[in-house]
Design brief:
The complex is a heterodimer of chains A (202) and B (114).
Chain A (H helix, E strand, L loop, with lengths): L6 H8 L6 E4 L31 E8 L2 H12 L10 H12 L10 E10 L4 E9 L5 H18 L1 H15 L5 E6 L20
Chain B lengths: L11 E4 L4 E5 L4 E6 L4 E5 L1 H9 L1 E4 H13 L10 H11 L3 E3 L10 E2 L4
Helix pairs in contact in B: 1-3
Classes of the chains: A alpha+beta (202), B alpha+beta (114).
Chain lengths: 202, 114
């Protein structure tokens, strides 16, 4: 039986070697009340405001370290360096809402819904939500991002670098998860029109 | 009135009070939990033997029994000085302290199966 063996019996079984002893770090706990949101800066988005109905939501969820999540938080709430009204999040929202699908028949169909940080005791995830008033294929979505970033890079390199820095924080993570959620409320009879034909009677 | 001597020599060593031991032979180790400091340690069989011998006797007596025990085992013995190194390591981890077990609340306890 396990609890009856003696060190001599175990030595007889395994042989004697150099004595070794070490501490096992069995659990690492952070302070449960660790202040996460910095004083004076609230959550980066107060809520989701959507004009028009959405057909789909693209959800980008990244599991970050405390430092990583705090860096995203800081980035979102940092004022724009040129002193203009708004924060970095304003620029990110503009890139998504105005830059994605620009110069295409899908222009204006993307909505930046917000970036949300869940900071619990066991997790700190950052979720970036993008609404689409019309569902698109993955290829269309990827192409739209490539074009939007290329346009941003050509127009204002500093702005592009700022946006790229936060996208890198979110998308370069191993645990990033991108979900494309189709919203039933926007596709069928639930609200009286389909995404294919537009508003009923319109 | 004569000189009062301590009841044990200062080089006596014993296991830390309240230490709870759980051998895990399938992993070739013994886990030692120190409830006072909420720390868990792993000991290989040689270190576990040293710990088990630390019952308040002087180090020399423990070292002698350690050597006797190892001589009775087949296979190569640890290099010279293994007892001193092992004891020093156990003391650095707080698993062995100087003194007699009478000065402590309890001696090491073997864990029962959960």
């Amino acid at each position: 039986m396990t609890d009856r063996i003696t060190p001599r019996e175990l030595l007889a079984r395994l042989g004697a070697g150099e004595p070794q002893a070490g501490e096992i770090v069995s659990e690492v706990r952070t302070e449960a009340a660790l202040p996460f949101f910095h004083e004076g800066s609230g959550a980066p988005a107060g809520g989701i405001t959507v004009t028009g109905s959405l057909a789909a939501i693209v959800s980008v969820t990244a599991e970050l370290s405390w430092q990583g999540a705090a860096a995203v938080q800081d980035w979102l709430t940092d004022p724009l360096p040129d002193g203009s009204l708004g924060t970095n999040e304003t620029e990110l929202g503009e890139l998504i809402s105005e830059g994605l699908f620009a110069d295409s028949e899908l222009a204006g169909t993307a909505r930046y819904l917000g970036t949300f940080i869940v900071a619990g005791q066991a997790k700190r995830s950052v979720k970036l939500l993008i609404g689409l008033t019309r569902p698109v294929s993955e290829a269309q979505y990827a192409t739209a991002w490539a074009k939007a970033l290329a346009a941003a890079k050509g127009a204002d390199r500093a702005r592009f670098d700022r946006i790229r820095s936060v996208l890198a924080m979110l998308l370069d993570e191993e645990n990033v998860k991108v979900e494309r959620l189709l919203l039933l409320s926007g596709v069928g009879d639930l609200i009286g029109h389909s995404i294919a034909s537009g508003p009923a009677g319109g | 009135m004569g000189l009062t001597l301590p009841s044990f020599p200062t080089d006596c060593v014993s296991a830390a009070p309240g230490l709870r031991l759980r051998p895990v032979p399938e992993m070739g180790t013994c886990l030692a939990y120190d409830p006072d400091r909420a720390r868990l340690h792993t000991l290989n069989p040689t270190a576990w033997l040293i710990l088990s011998l630390c019952d308040g006797r002087p180090r020399a007596a423990i070292a002698a029994e350690f050597a006797t025990t190892l001589r009775g085992l087949a296979g190569p013995a640890p290099e010279q000085g293994a007892f001193s190194r092992g004891l020093a390591r156990l003391m650095s981890l707080g698993l062995v302290i100087t003194g007699s077990p009478q000065t402590r609340s309890s001696s090491p306890q073997k864990e029962t199966a959960p």
